[in-house]
Amino acid sequence: MVSKNSPIIIVGGGAFGLSTALHLSQNGYTDITIFEQDTQIPPRYSAANDLNKIVRAEYEDSFYTDLTIKAIAAWKTPLFAPHFHQTGFLHCVTGAAPEKAIGTLKRFQGAANNHPQLRPHVVQLNGPGDIRPWFWQCDGPLPGWKGYINRFDGYAHSGNALAAVYRVTQNSGVKFFLGAKGAVQEIVYKDGKGTGIKTVDGKFHGAALVIVAAGAAASKLIPELGGQVVAKSWSVAHVHLTDEETSALRGIPVTYARDLGFYFEPDPKTNLLKLCPMGGGYINTDPNTGVSHSPGSLETSAFMPPDDEERVRKLLAQTLPGLADRPLVRKSLCWFADTKDSDFIIDYLPGTGASVVLLSGDSGHGFKMFPIVGEWVKALLEDESKTQAIARWRWKDQKEEKEEDWGGDVSWRLGETRELKDVLPGKTKL
Ligand SMILES: Cc1cc2nc3c(=O)[nH]c(=O)nc-3n(C[C@H](O)[C@H](O)[C@H](O)COP(=O)(O)OP(=O)(O)OC[C@H]3O[C@@H](n4cnc5c(N)ncnc54)[C@H](O)[C@@H]3O)c2cc1C
């Protein structure tokens, strides 16, 4: 077991890395260093460098429902509360939704209704007339919309939450190496045991334990992971509102049509309303290895594919038609680490004598857990058996994994996964 004064390196200053630093430093670990490739935190490469992320408790799988309920309790504590907004989650399908979307919506609603803590907050919505009282600003036709609202849910301002935890961990003695000094080129091993890391500026930094929390880029540092995790992205764009429009939309619920996408209440500092289309996402497969990696440069991802743009404009036309033809700004593909079953991977890297921990597989639903992720890492480090007690979060034997369909058949996803090269601007096949 790593001792509380052993040097611990965390690679990645995104959601999982910062949460780990917070919990370890709050629990007596004294020598923690985060290495982050960007020059700033929140890092621009982090999937959580964003205005907002949905925090919804109902999962089809009650394991994650229970964890989210714990996370929401933590979101309401002083460090996190300024960044959590319990606006409710308006979860619907449109009249044109395919069966898969309708089935998923029903299972989510069933999960919320079956949970004693969530049930009192859930209201069934049988049509536009039921929806409008919860979202009075909505002046669109809501054609065939139905679903439910869960007032237990909401969203978190993820970029600001990262910044807050950065400040607190810095003040409690966690060291940070950013930019070229923080960009990790490789994990250094001796006789199979991790002894530290080498950064791109050629420096070696020793550690008793290396925790890899590198998000979509994890398999660049741990190539063996490529069989379990795929770098995948969804697109994001924003509408820039006036002060008055932002003000008028204060308090709207997170509005989600399963077959189109979702948006959030606008951010009062930037007047940006963030939009995400629903879809199977984009991968970037290296033809030589068959492994998908996030592109090295942010510029490559600074666009929204036309099909996605069509979907978010339709979402606006049905709900807030005055915004449907506005320019979309700050477009990007946002990269995350996807597993086939949407389970996280929080485990020792096999064969390293418990010297390397992997924190990955967020599968695009990890930010809601930001306040509590580090607790899980602490539990792993303090388990004398050096085994992840939660079987579903263990490193998976590659032979058990099937080749086909990287998470595409996960029930909460809709649409096929496409290759980045096929949707890059100028190369889109229409
Ligand atoms: C479009 C989109 C929408 C999402 N919506 C939601 C949502 O509504 N609700 C929700 O709960 N979750 C959501 N997520 C998921 C959430 O953002 C992630 O689960 C979370 O950010 C994962 O945290 P992470 O620390 O694993 O990765 P990240 O936050 O991406 O952080 C990884 C960090 O590692 C750094 N790094 C990588 N390689 C190196 C290296 N070699 N050296 C140094 N640093 C390195 C990167 O720069 C980055 O800062 C969404 C994700 C996307 C993409």
TrEMBL record:
<keyword id="KW-0285">Flavoprotein</keyword>
<dbReference type="Pfam" id="PF01266">
    <property type="entry name" value="DAO"/>
</dbReference>
<dbReference type="InterPro" id="IPR006076">
    <property type="entry name" value="FAD-dep_OxRdtase"/>
</dbReference>
<dbReference type="InterPro" id="IPR045170">
    <property type="entry name" value="MTOX"/>
</dbReference>
<comment type="similarity">
    <text>Belongs to the MSOX/MTOX family.</text>
</comment>
<feature type="domain" description="FAD dependent oxidoreductase">
    <location>
        <begin position="8"/>
        <end position="378"/>
    </location>
</feature>
<protein>
    <submittedName>
        <fullName>FAD dependent oxidoreductase</fullName>
    </submittedName>
</protein>
<dbReference type="InterPro" id="IPR036188">
    <property type="entry name" value="FAD/NAD-bd_sf"/>
</dbReference>
<keyword id="KW-0560">Oxidoreductase</keyword>
<keyword id="KW-0274">FAD</keyword>
